[in-house]
Design brief:
This protein has helices at 2-43, 62-69, 76-88, 98-104, 114-126, 132-144, 154-204, 224-238, 267-270, 279-288; strands at 206-211, 246-250, 253-261, 302-310. The protein is α+β, with helices and mostly antiparallel strands and 311 residues long.
Length: 311
């Protein structure tokens, strides 16, 4: 009887250990998925939105990207490497989606962290992003997730703020373009862009500005420090080097500088007058911004900076 009791206790203990392990694994998986979805939302979905109701897009939907990279034979490590290499250095040579490049233009270079891209690519490999099951998980995430306050470096925090801002601005701009065309979107930017940016800043307890050496709105003129950084980035751009962000202490605050580069959509308002910019759009620009200096850009060209002041 004594041996049987010991055996029973052992079985109970073993069962509890298994249950605890399963619960921990489930918790760790949920935490990992939440982190990956947050990164996707902040870094990818502004251009590669999974929303099928969007008519005009900045890039192919995320599930199409997975379809091109994924196969039953590809190893997870190989998948992550291919996706990450392209995202870190978008080029014709690195692209395996010539149709997307033809339709949307080459993806502009972004300020991504290598480890974040590896998490994103691993999640894309592990999940069928075109399935009903995934869409249900995505809808649940959108309704339950909130901006986190986990410990981050100032560079990471600033990048998270910038990518959140890009996502919100791009999503709303695409809606305005779909509803009112490019000329109507110019008016949207003049009225709502600063309001949207300020609302994101309040959520993150930060101050966000967009500055440039060639402003459309004189309020976006870069100051002396910002101009020096823009000029340094232009030298790197000429050498076809990566344009890095930077963190400085300015007036007692941690301040991040993050490059803004043009995508194909930007050229409709920031390209060459008479060719890229249609007459109706040019007329609206002149009406709203009589001192406009923000034309003459090409694709994937430095446009200015996001400046993020963090407490």
């Amino acid at each position: 009887m004594k041996n049987q009791a010991i055996l029973n206790l052992t079985l109970v203990a073993f069962t509890l250990i298994l249950l605890t392990g399963c619960i921990n694994q489930a918790s760790e998986k949920k935490e990992a998925d939440t982190k990956a979805l947050t990164l996707l939302q902040n870094n990818c979905f502004a251009c590669h939105t999974p929303d099928m109701s969007i008519d005009k897009r900045l890039g192919p939907p995320i599930f199409r990207i997975r379809e091109h990279y994924f196969s039953e034979k590809i190893r997870r490590e190989e998948f992550i490497d291919k996706v990450t290499r392209f995202a870190m250095n978008p080029s014709q040579a690195n692209s395996i989606m010539p149709g997307a490049v033809r339709n949307f233009g080459l993806m502009p270079k972004q300020s991504f962290r290598q480890e974040d891209l590896e998490i994103i690519a691993g999640y894309i490999y592990d999940h069928d992003l075109g399935s009903d099951e995934w869409y249900a998980a995505w809808e649940e995430f959108k309704t339950t997730s909130k901006p986190g306050a986990k410990a981050m470096t100032f560079e990471e925090r600033g990048l998270n703020i910038v990518n959140s801002t890009k996502s919100i601005l791009a999503t709303n701009l695409m809606k305005a373009m779909s509803a009112h065309g490019t000329a109507g979107a110019v008016e949207f930017c003049s009225v709502h862009a600063i309001t949207l940016t300020d609302s994101i800043a309040r959520v993150h307890d930060a101050k966000i500005r967009r500055v440039t050496d060639r402003p459309r709105n004189p309020a976006n003129q870069a100051n002396e420090t910002e101009l020096a950084y823009i000029n340094m980035l232009k030298i790197k751009e000429e050498k076809q080097e990566t344009l890095p962000p930077s963190i400085l202490i300015v007036d007692g605050k941690m301040t991040g500088y993050y490059p803004i580069q043009t995508a194909r959509m930007c050229i409709q308002c920031h390209g060459t007058l008479g060719t890229d910019i249609l007459p109706e759009t040019a007329e609206r620009l002149h009406l709203l911004y009589p001192q406009d200096k923000a034309t003459g850009y090409g694709e994937n060209q430095l446009r200015g900076l996001f400046v993020v002041e963090m407490n």
